[in-house]
Amino acid sequence: MNESRTAKASPRAATKAARQPAKGSAATPGAEAAEPGQLVEFYRRMVLIRKFELTADQMYKRAKIGGYCHLNLGEEASVVGLMDALRPTDYLFTNYRDHGYALMRGMDTGKVMAELFGKTTGVSKGRGGSMHMFDTEKRMLGGYGIVGGQIPPATGAALALTYRGAAGPDAEAVMCQMGDGTTNIGAFHESLNLAAVWSLPIVYVVINNRLGMGTTVEKAAGEPELYKRGSSYRIPGVRADGGDVLAVREAATEALDQARTQRQPALLELMSYRLRGHSVVDPARYRSAADLETAQEADPVPALRAQLIADGTLDEKQAAAIETQVEDQVAAAVAFADASPDSTPDQLFDYAYATPVPNAPTALPGERMVVLP
Amino acid sequence: MSADADKTTLVTYRQALNDAIRSEMNRDEKVILLGEEIGIFEGSYKITAGLLKEFGPERVRDTPIAEEGFVGAAIGAAMLGMRPVVEIMTLNFSLIAIDQIVNHAAKIYGMFGGQQSVPMVIRMPGGGGQQLAATHSQNLEVWYAHVPGLKVVAPSTPADAKALLLAAIRDDDPVIFLENLALYNTKGEVPAGDEPAEIGRAAVVKDGTDLTVISYSRATTIAVEVARQMAEEGISVEVVDLRSLRPLDRSTICASVRKTGRAVVLEDDWLSYGIGAEISATLMEGAFDYLDAPVRRVAAAEVPLPYAKPLERRALPDAGDLRRVILELLDDTSFES
Q: Count of domains in chain B?
C-alpha cells in the first residue's frame, strides 16, 4: 500500500497519469473498460452540463440571473467522472462552481435553473443562488462561495461517518471538491491534517484548471504539483487527466474505495481547463491566445463526441439526437424557472432559525425593533 | 419540571458547566466534544474534567491547534446529525475560526432554504483581569451578537450556566456560548435535574424601583453586588441580566426601564459600538417617554488591554465605576430616597 502511494506521488507517475488514459485492474470497479452504452451516457451528461452552462450564460446576460455565476465549461469530463464514481449514499461538498455537480447528483434541472433565477422553486428556495446549490436527499451538502470554506465542514461530515459504522466496501464516504487556488488557504491544510490524524473517509478533489481567477498555479503555489500537497499529511496524492471521463472515474473510484475500506483520506488532482473567464462577467483578457487555444483543443465535449463517432459507437444522427434531447431538457428547465413564482417579502424571515426562539428580530428596514403596547 | 428541580446544590460555574455537558452526553450519544486539550489535559480551565475517562476519546476528542479546521469540522458533523460541543480555549482564538462561524455556521440553515440545520455549540471564555495582556483578554461578544443565524448566550450564574448550556446543546441552531474567566470559580445554587433555560429571554435578577442596571456575564455579578449595597443606602436598583445577546430580549429591558425611569448599562466590552450602544438605542425606541435622563454606559476603556496590573485594573469597569455613575444619574434626576 505504502509503495503504491509513493509511486503515485512521484512526478514521473504523475506525468504518466496525466498523459495517458487510466488503466486499471478488474479489482476496482471503475477501472473496467466502459461499455459503449455507458460512454454514450457519459457523453449525454457532459452535453447536459455544457448546454446548461451555455444557457446560464445567456440567461445571465438577459438579467434573469444575478450575482456571481461560475460555469463548469471545460470541466464537464471531470464533473461527470467524479459524480459517476460517487454513490448516492456518499456526501458531496463543492465550491461555488457547482451547477454541473448539482445536475450530476440527480438534482432536477428545472429546480437548479430556478435557483439561478432566484425562484422559490429553486433547490435552495432561491436563498442561495448560483454558488449555493444544496439538496439534503441527494446528499449534495452545498456549493460554498467562500474559497476553502467547504473543506472543514466536509472533513467534519467524514468525521460524523466514523460514528455511523465500521469501514468497509459499503461504507459511506465524503467527496470535497475545490479549485487549484484553494490549496493555498489555511482551511485546506488544517482539514487535510485533521483527516490524516483522525483517519477520515474523505476524498479531496482539486480541479486544477491552472488559473485561480487570473493567477496561475505557478505564481500561487509553492508546490505547483498540487497532488503532492497531501504528502505533508501522509495523504496519498494522485493526478489524473481531468479531460478524460474514464480516467477521472477510475481515479475517483479508487480513492473513494480506499476511503470506504480503510478510512484513508486521499487527494485527487484533475488537470483541466477553463474554457471561459472565472465567472460569466470575466472576459479573461489576462489569458494569452495560445493558452486559450490549448484550452479549446482540450475541450472534452467535442473530443468525446469525435471519439464516439470515430469508433462507430455513434453516428452523426445519433449524436445530434442526444444533443437535441438535452437542449429540450434545458429549455424545459428555463421554462420551469421562468414560470415559477418569485419570492415575496413576507417570506423574508422564513428559515431564520431551525429552533424557534423568542425575541428573534423581524423588523424590516425603517421599522422599530421595539413596539410599544 | 422534574420533582427534584426544587433541590439545589451550591456549585461553581465551572462545575455547573461540567455537569451540563455530562448530563447531555449521557442523554444523547450524538453529543461529542471537540477542542484543544479537552481530553487528557481536561481543558485549559478544567471544564471537561473527568469526561475523557467517562466517555472515551471518540466522544471527547482532542484536536490539533487548528481552530478553523475543528470548528468547521464540527459544522460538518452537525450537518450529518451529530451534536458537537466545541471548546475554543479562549474567545480570542475564535477569530481564527470566524470564517467558519460567521460565513458557514450562521448561514447554512437560511442560505440553503432551511434544508439543513447546524446543531452545534461553541463554548469559549472571554474577559480580562487575569494579566493576560491585549490578545488574551478581549470581550468580542458583539462580533457574534451582530450576526443573524447565530444565537449568543452569556450566563452570569452557575444556575444559568447549566440551564443555558443544556438548552444550547439541545438547540438545532449554532449557539455561541460565552463564558468568562473571572466567573469559573464563582459559586451559586444550581437546581438538580436537567431543566433547560429558554434562549432569548433576559431575567430580572434583582427587583428595584429607582434605576435599572442592564448587564450580562461577569458584569452582572458586579451589578447585583452594587445593587445590594445601595439597597442598604435606601436606593432601589433593579438588575436585568441579558443572558441572551442574540436574540436580545428588548421587551424585558424596556419594561424594567419604563418602571424605573433610569438606566445604566454595565458591560465588559469596549464602549464604541458595544452592547450598551444597542441597549441605549433599544431604550430610545421602547422607553424614551419614560426616561428621566439619558441612558448611561459603563464599559471598558478603549485600549488594547495592558498587562501591567494598575493599568489593566483601571481599564476594566468595576463596582466603583458603576456606583459612581448610578449616583451621578440619580443626582442628575434629583433623586431623593
A: 2
